[in-house]
């Protein structure tokens, strides 16, 4: 097939390291009947070995040239191609419990992760290649600099584990940053406990807005000392000192108060 020139605006850094590709596919462990969705198949580095073990593979791709190439692949008959922006995809329209995989375009990874939280109840597991710095924020513990809104929301919904560090040379073109692969498994006992995800998300946005300020200050328009007391959070703490489950308790309490 003709050469494809990597497009920066679509975050195209193609995997070329066979060892890393094999490690990712081994981590996913596709079984023939699994419902697997690959985000951004690109030149099919992961797609091909994944499809080998599957009856069918869903792929989501935005680049029309790449879509045309995918349709010409020898195993194209196994692919269900969703053309367009993954941020617009209704994951629930694909029936079944899903395994989601992707060497993600780094410019959309954070909004995508926030969206995936909302379909966590239909997910078996997810394996993503991300900027290493994002992976570190995802798994960060309270009281560290990396701990923020992303850590709280994702840790509340998923068990997460970094499974692989990936250097820039594993890609063509090589990105300027280090990468890592993370495994995310829904935290089934906890799903649904946040009564209103939008409310929780808004609360976290405000709580972490100015990291050096206290929670009382950042949330003063919204949360009274009585509200903090009701869920046992000390209002003089900074946002990074509060655990994910405490934020969920506060969000649910506010909802009950009609805030
Ligand atoms: N999976 C391939 C690999 O590992 O070599 C390509 C990975 S490349 C980092 C990201 C892929 O996502 C590209 O194929 C790109 O065209 C696609 N992509 C970028 N933005 C997208 C979007 N918003 N929705 C769907 N696909 C997107």
From TrEMBL:
Name by which UniProt lists this protein: Ribosomal RNA small subunit methyltransferase A
SUPFAM superfamilies assigned to the protein according to its UniProt record, in alphabetical order: S-adenosyl-L-methionine-dependent methyltransferases
Record has RNA-binding as a keyword: yes
Classification via PANTHER family: DIMETHYLADENOSINE TRANSFERASE, DIMETHYLADENOSINE TRANSFERASE-RELATED
InterPro entries: KsgA/Erm, rRNA_Ade_diMease-like_C, rRNA_Ade_Mease_Trfase_CS, rRNA_Ade_methylase_Trfase_N, rRNA_adenine_dimethylase, SAM-dependent_MTases_sf
This protein's record includes keyword RNA-binding: yes
Annotated function: Specifically dimethylates two adjacent adenosines (A1518 and A1519) in the loop of a conserved hairpin near the 3'-end of 16S rRNA in the 30S particle. May play a critical role in biogenesis of 30S subunits.
Annotated organism of origin: Vitreoscilla massiliensis
Major place of residence: cytoplasm
Compartments reported by the entry: Cytoplasm
Chain's gene name: rsmA
């Amino acid at each position: 097939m003709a050469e494809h020139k990597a497009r920066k605006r679509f975050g195209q850094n193609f995997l070329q390291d066979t060892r890393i590709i094999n490690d990712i596919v081994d981590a996913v462990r596709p079984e023939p009947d699994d419902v697997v969705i690959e985000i951004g198949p690109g030149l099919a580095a992961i797609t091909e070995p994944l499809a080998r073990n599957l009856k069918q593979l869903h792929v989501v791709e935005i680049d029309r040239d790449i879509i045309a190439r995918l349709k010409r692949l020898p195993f194209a008959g196994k692919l269900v191609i969703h053309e367009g922006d993954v941020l617009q995809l209704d994951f629930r329209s694909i029936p079944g419990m899903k395994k989601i995989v992707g060497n993600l375009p780094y410019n959309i990874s954070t909004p995508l992760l926030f969206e995936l939280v909302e379909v966590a109840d239909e997910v078996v597991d997810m394996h993503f290649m991300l900027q290493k710095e994002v992976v570190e924020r995802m798994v960060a513990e309270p009281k560290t600099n990396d701990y923020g809104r992303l850590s709280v929301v994702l840790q509340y919904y998923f068990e997460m584990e970094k499974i692989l560090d990936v250097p820039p040379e594993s890609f063509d073109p090589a990105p300027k940053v280090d990468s890592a692969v993370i495994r995310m498994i829904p935290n089934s006992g906890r799903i649904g406990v946040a009564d209103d995800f939008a409310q929780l998300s808004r609360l976290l946005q405000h709580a972490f807005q100015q990291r050096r300020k206290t929670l009382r200050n950042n949330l003063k328009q919204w949360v009274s000392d009585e509200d903090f007391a009701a869920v046992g959070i000390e209002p003089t703490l900074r946002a990074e000192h509060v655990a994910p489950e405490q934020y969920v308790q506060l969000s649910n309490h506010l909802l009950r108060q009609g805030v």
